[in-house]
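Methods — Computational structure assignment.
A single polypeptide chain was analysed. Its primary sequence is given first, followed by the predicted tertiary structure written as structure tokens.
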Amino acid sequence: MALLITHKCINCDMCEPECPNQAISMGNEIYEIDSDRCTECIGHYDKPTCQSVCPIDNTIIINPAHKETNEALWDKFVVLHHTV
């Protein structure tokens, strides 16, 4: 599942540089996560780094609109990083 940044976001700029897939960018009001690029850090880290660095609890959550298996997230990582 891709992640989602909720309106609890305070635009602290912590998450965007931590994303290894460049899936996080500034939206109109708060940071947003591109679900086509988010792998929940599968292929890079044990857990999503954006959630780890976010200072506000439950601000970055699983996006219920983009449910994906770990295998699908891995496949997305492979496509994004051209790894075989």
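Note: Helices lie at 49-53, 70-81.
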